[in-house]
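My current task is to audit a protein record that another person submitted. Please read both lines and tell me whether the tokens look consistent with the sequence. Do not assume that whoever made the record got everything right. I have pasted the whole thing underneath without changing anything:

===
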Amino acid sequence: MNANQIEQIIRENAKRNAAKKQDYDPISGLNCCGERFALTVKDKHPGTFYFPVEMQYHPSILLLKKHGSVAGAVREVFGRRNKVTEVQCDYFWLKVCEERIKYDFEFFAIAYETIIDKQTAEPIKFKLNRAQRRLLKIIMERIKEGKRINIQILKAKQMGFSTLVEMVFKWIQTIIKRNWNSFIIAQDLTAAQNIRVMYGDSVKEMPQIDGEKISLDSFERTTNIKLITQTGSRITVASADTPKATRSQNAKLVHFSEMAFYSTTEKNNPSLIEAAAISSMTDGPYTAIIRESTANGEGDYFHQQWLKAKEGKSAFYPFFAPWFEIPLYEIPFNGSYYIPETEFTDKKGDRTKKGTVSDFIKTLNNYEINLWNNHTDCTLENLNWRRMRAAEMPGEWLMKQEYPSDDIEAFQSSGNPVFISEDLEALRKDCCMPAYVGVLQSKCSPTLSITQPHRRKEILEDITFVNEPEVYDAITSTDRETRIKRGVNKIWVWDLPHKEEKISNRYLVVFDPQKGTSDSADYGVIKVIDRYWMMYGEPQEVVAMFYGHIDKDITIWIATQIAKWYNNALLVVESNTYDSNIKEDDTPFIFEIIKEHYDNIYARTEPEKIREGAPIQYGEHTNVSTKPAYIETYISIIREKGYVERDEETINEGRTFERKKNNKTGAKDGCHDDRIMATMIGLYISLNKMPLPAKIKPTKINESGGQFIY
């Protein structure tokens, strides 16, 4: 980086700091949201006020415009000959302020609201920070348009958005509307209680309005519902863990707090909670549905709804605030700066180095440069703070989780994922639509394997692939959900079987059977792995895939057909589904039936034990011993870029494959792991149970009648 570039960055940084430190005064109304007009009031500090335009024709404002002071306005009201008293002036100004709070939330917040400061734990007046003001602007725009406030808030920690939402609700319920109920749902009982206490404490601290003190009373002896006596509005606070408590309370204002952390069970999940809470809501001004949460990884309901909001496919406005919008997160340059992690050498833990801002700029790494270039709110002081905090974190992934810079970073770095997101995302560049989509046909359909057992061998005879262009067009030109629905029960082919060159152990076909046939059940997944390039030290790659909800006694024959089509590939079947049904039906004997017609089936029984007379156990069994091995193998493979993935949904499933609280691993609640499990099993077998592929050398008859290999 040359001197001219450094100077440009320094000048730009000065502009950014000036913009972030722009004067903001909710008492006067300076730089507050909404359209405003200036009004001089000489005998009230600071002398110039910026009132909402809705007030400009109010009688008291017209008097202030005419006289330029409270005293002048009061003198006209009480007569010019009467002496104006301080009490009269204070009362007149009080009535102006009480009229103002109907239109000016920021003034209401600073004048009437008290919150607990997170740094000092002391009560302070509620002055909005920069990120809160940006959110408030959107809320007020919706109100002015007469629309319901539908916003989904994705946040970093300690941003104050939950506080803002509760205070806006309180403003509407105490100042604007009567009989206007609010409903707040927190992720658990403790969080619900904290919200209830915060709300109650803020009401206690409120000054009188129009000579009356706002008060809260219990509603019909309930513990979770409070009644604002003066307006008849109710505040209900419930936990997402208690489904009955989240039933509709005829609410006009609904706040889902930390929604990404709501539990998901068979009988209760965020979707059902939301539907129950808003079932009787009406639309219109001063109504609201607010989803708010820090991220909890990808794939859950909150993440799915966020993606829909971003794509404009829902009624919700997606709102995200990065960590560098908070004034606390910056460290000025006072003759030293924090060094990047790559330069840590001091064993005493000193992470600073003497130098100027120019010296600091020279040490910026690629990630920091991208932050600077892509986010005009990010300053050098922010980056200096980030280095300090990152040095205290166990890893960069946790830094991004706690202090995300954008929504992608927030979701990718949160939750408790098994796989490193950067390693998975590196695979995505090779993902693409298949070259063909279709089905395999043969002399006999796999659907007849049970009813016409005498024709089973025909299922594997004269196998041909039938391309289906209409299905291909549908999956390549639609959205993700439609693509998944239209592509079900079809074979996705990225590379056709290579027949011209004879290679042993080239293809591997892995089948992870479905656990049911309902739409919510995991799919049965078949993946084909081409191991050809392993002969030259290059990665193996996925070349075909099938996923479906067909009965497993049919799908296993489809898997066998695919193995036969791909040059008699090794067929690996995850056997848990079959093994678990031993006492219920005859499915465990399916392996013996398949073996009669296709002999290249993987058996987990060691050859030595078979020779000793042990029974052959076909298939790969997933258990507490083998599953960790699959996972560790996959972690190593993706770290070293050891295979090529073509299916993007496999990457998506890897992103939502998490470690549970009981230390088990699996799909996040509401997500699937069938594709990633099939892939992990296949790669594990490929690396640990199969010899390397090799060219099969043809034989030639010599003149004496013997054979030799060349």
Q: What stands out?
A: The chain has 25 helices and 28 strands. The radius of gyration is 34 Å. The mean pLDDT is 89.
